[in-house]
Amino acid sequence: MAFENEERVVLVDHPMVQHKLAILRDKTTPSKQFRELVRELAMFETFEVTRDLPLEEVFVETPVAEAKCKIVKGRKMAIVPILRAGLGMVEGVLDLVPAACVGHLGMERDEQTHRPREYYAKMPKDIADRDVLIVDPMLATGGSSLAAIEYLRECGVKSLKLMVLVAAPEGIRAVLDADPDVTVYTCAIDDGLNDAAYIVPGLGDAGDRIFGTK
Ligand SMILES: O=P(O)(O)OC[C@H]1O[C@H](OP(=O)(O)OP(=O)(O)O)[C@H](O)[C@@H]1O
Ligand SMILES: O=c1cc[nH]c(=O)[nH]1
Ligand SMILES: [Mg+2]
Predict the structure, then answer these.
(1) Which conformational region is residue 147 in: left (phi greater than 0), alpha (psi within -120 to 50 degrees), or beta?
(2) In 3D, which of 185, 183, 193 has the Cα closest to residue 109?
(3) In the chain, which ranges are continuous DSSP H helix?
(4) Is residue 193 a known part of a binding site?
(5) Which annotated residues bind 5-phospho-alpha-D-ribose 1-diphosphate (predicted)?
(6) pLDDT tens, 160-181?
(7) Do the Cβ atoms of 174 and 114 come closer than 8 Å?
(8) Is 109 a catalytic residue?
(9) Residues with CB under 6 A from ligand 2
(10) For residue 117, how far is its CA from the centre of ligand 3 (angstroms)?
């Protein structure tokens, strides 16, 4: 990795993650399997995202004796998928963090300008007090993620992480440069972008592959 602020980039490259990502990238993988893989990868990645959760000590009576244990300290978390493709990751995060609530942010890239257009937003009322995890499989130019980060900062969110499956270096740089606190989690950092601002080699259009719209 060669980024300024690279301490804010976490590459989740566990062998099982790399294996599943290889199948995800394959253009012959059908939508059903693609959806399952996006969900599974999101769950694996959430292990890393939640690594820094604070713990508290508790005592538990086992059938044999008292055990000194640790449990996760109650924190309020919100998952914010960038629609549509981010929806595919929500269940995977909820598999690990079932108490999280979900805010939705609709964002669509213009095919000519590659700029995002926001078309929907519905957040939990107390979003400013929650640890927020933005999810989207693809971080290409960074425009959509940046718009989501700006929106959430304006809502008063202080604790913010971005979790993607595949990132272009351009998108990572854009996000790190624009926000001084956000951390980016990704399963892969690809070579770059093509003329249509698609990630190369990437996996194509994640939304279309999840929902079978092409
Ligand atoms: O980093 P960027 O250059 O902004 O590109 C990435 C965005 O593009 C895709 O969404 P898309 O606009 O295709 O919408 P969709 O999820 O409805 O397919 C993807 O899911 C990201 O949100
Ligand atoms: O490669 C890309 C870029 C943007 N959006 C996608 O779904 N894929
Ligand atoms: Mg799309």
Answers:
(1) alpha
(2) 193
(3) 15-25, 31-49, 87-96, 143-154, 169-178, 206-211
(4) no
(5) 84, 109, 136-144, 205
(6) 999 999 999 999 999 999 999 9
(7) no
(8) yes
(9) 85, 138, 140, 198-199, 202, 205-207
(10) 12
Measured torsion, CA atoms of residues 49, 179, 132, 199, in degrees rounded to the nearest 10: -60
- Indicate the burial class of 119 (C-beta count within 10 angstroms; 0-12, 13-18, 19 or more): exposed
The yes-or-no verdict on residue 109 having pLDDT over 90 is yes
Per-residue exposure over 61-76, b if at least 16 CB sit within 10 Å of its own CB, e if not: eeeeeeeeeeeeeeee
> Residue 142, annotated ligand binder?
yes
| Residue boundaries of the structural domains of the chain | 6-211
Instruction: State whether ipTM is beyond 0.95.
Output: yes
Pairing verdict, β 183-186 and 9-11: parallel
Type of residue found at 174: A
Pick the closest to residue 89 from 173, 185, 9, 174 (CA basis).
185
Residue 50 annotated as catalytic: no
Ligand 2 atom showing the smallest separation from residue 202 Cα: 1
Dihedral sign for Cα 46, 137, 190, 213, please: positive
